[in-house]
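During the reporting period the student researcher (J.K.) took over the structure-prediction task from the postdoctoral fellow and processed the backlog of single-chain submissions. One of the processed entries is reproduced below for the supervisory committee.
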Amino acid sequence: MQITINPTLIKGTIHAPASKSVMQRACAAALLRNGITIIDNYGQSNDDKAAINIIQQLGAKVTYTDAQKLEITSDGLPKVSSFSMIDCAESGLSLRMFAPIAALLNTEVTFVGHGSLLKRPVHFIEAFLSGLGVTVFSNEGLLPLEIKGPLKPVNCNVDGSITSQLLTGILFAFGTSAKEDVSIEVDNLKSKPYIDLTLKVMEDFGMNVPVNDQYQRFIFKYKPSDSIVKKTLNYTIEGDWSSAAFFMVAGAIAGNVIIKGLDVFTTQADKKVLEALQDCGCRLSIQMEQIEVTKHELKAFHFDATDCPDLFPPLVALAAHCNGTSVIEGVHRLEHKESNRTLSLQAEFEKLGVHITIQDDKMIIVRQTKISEPLTLNGHNDHRIVMACAIAALVAKAPVAIDGIEAVNKSYPDFFRHLMSIQK
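J.K. obtained the following structure tokens:
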């Protein structure tokens, strides 16, 4: 599918969509909780739907009570039929998080996926689970991934340099199954705020939460499980900062935007977008109930996105309209996404007159020289590339067509509806 964005000023209010990072973790926690969980403001992106489907495949009962709530009933342990195919769609988090949880089973399960997930490596999952007594086979380091447990929670070491998402799954699995004190040593952990988010969800759901020893070791103290069915837990999914970041950038370069539904005290990594917005000189108002961003003369900024790589696409759109040369660090985190985002951002923003170079682990962005003729951009089947292109197109000199816009369904199905609602 294609859409054409005409240059325009914007003004309006957006309610941030539910955080898929929180939603997917809440699904895992609800599966591992003995009782009923009612989730309010549940996510409806493709990644959220993948997580809901997976917990059903692993034994949870899911009922939609109304437009904003769903009820999850579980006995606290994953279970499957004699053989089960776990479909992660295109969700990398679901694959990496639910693989250790499914490994708790003494039953073979096969994880499959679609689209870009078929190209994303699983060798590190295979290597780690094999060390915990799990039988694991992959397709030469790619999906499908066959797993047969049961996983044995023992002192172990995990490499956190590629992603923190596998550690999230391990923490959930150990928090459910450890029958003695056990520790997880972690090397080179990236995206620490996402682990903070995992621990927060575990705490909210009453799980056994490990001691965090400076992100280098996580220590579980054995606690006998509570066999009594727990009371119903009501849990609300907070707004998503990674999605809201695109509209904050839109306000900074093209008018005025108010975003509601965000938790200013969140552990979400992408809250750091506020630092970049403050540094570049836009008008920024941060209140408990809303964030307001208004266009102003923008200056170049320097930002470290190592722990929040999903901010690269919106921040490139921001840097493209700042006076001078901006620098974003953490390029090594961009390769294994829905696309290789380094190459995708370079290719599409070059068409917009933006010069992007890579130096060591830094992306260097020189302000856009606006192109006066109509353009067509490629979304690279990557939701965040599509959204970054759409935001940048607001301040182009001519209409910009974007191919592959259906990719936004992965994280933000209402993105274009919201964008059109604030155009003047």
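The committee noted the following: The chain has a mean pLDDT of 95.
J.K. will present the remaining backlog at the next meeting.
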